[in-house]
Fold:
Amino acid sequence: MKASESNSHYASKVRECTNFAVREIKKVCQNVGPRPSGEEGEKKAQDYIENLMTPIADEVKREEFSLSPKAFMGWMLVDGIMMLVSAALMIIALTGLVPGAAVFKAVATVLSVLSLIFLLGEFLFYKKLLDPLFPKKESSNVICTRKAAGETKRRIIVGGHIDSAYEWRYTHLGGSKLLTAVVIIAVVSLLCSLVIDVVSFFDLGRVADFSLLAAQCVTVPGFVLILFFVNGKVCVMGANDNLTGVFTSMAVIKYLKDNDIRFENTEVVAVSTGSEESGLRGAKAFAASHAKEYAESGVETVFLAVDTLHDFDHFGVFNKDMTGTVKLSTQAALMVKTAGEIAGYDLPYKAASVGATDAAATQQGGIKSAALVAMDPAPAKYYHTREDTADILDFKTVESGLKIALESVFLFDEQGLKDNYS
Structure:
């Protein structure tokens, strides 16, 4: 059975649940506000989800986990400082005015290499390289379950993250063009600095040293720019990224509850994850706690991350995530794409161009995953800026996202994960 066939007044019932999602987003924005990872705002929002869903879901659980919330984006500050020190040491060494030039060059090279490792490890692969350097905080996931009527043979998890990001200063000031320019300048400066470090060990004469010195001086602005990438004084509202994902997921459970729909053998779970903006920490914790349990139970399980339902023209199914470095489940992505077709939408396959969704962490953790996203990948002007408020919510996109999520749930209940859907 299709979701659209589950109720003779399906359109109006979906509209009611979309109104529920939008209304609750506005309430959280008004009554809780910004929700930085591991801080009081995030905790209050999870409290709200827990209280809201207790009479709606069969079971609501709160699972705590520890993290270092400033570590993930902290690599920019660490890299910026290290590269400035590296550049200063190399400039001193290349002038030839101070003894110990070889030592200065060696230290500068080590700092440059470490900066590249942190860039790749933290940003591209979301590894916890810098966590020991930053204070620990507590965060949580809220897990809301509508149980199967009989034996549970399948489980579909729909989720979004409750936390919101600290502002990306350059996106706020100049949109995607300024953001892209700063990123390119910073990365090119780092790579050029590495080349300068290596070449400086060869005795190429004073003219070459002067050229390297000039080139090193040119890289300095790039390292200064990266220091100011994140505005740590402004945590954004995150109405679209990603309260839309959280409350669309909760609306799935509400739709089933309101219309007295309980699958015979499929359990439906809605998850509000914490600390996604700090390196997918909530989804990582969820997978670490449940992936083995799910696998050993023999219950076919899939995770659908719902993220930033705002830009209707950019709807898509992520089959690659984490800046394109993580391959998501082909079957899960096909399921969502097919569900989209059933709902009347042609969803292209896409890859996360910058950043990641919770699906990357759950896929890496051992749960087959895909993501449903509707955001301009440029990125959008509101992405991680103070413009991401409830005032710019797009009802049509949220409603469409809910329809696709519901069809995904009904399709999974009927057929599970497959290589082809009839």
In short: The longest strand covers residues 137-146. The CA atoms of residues 37 and 275 lie 5 Å apart.
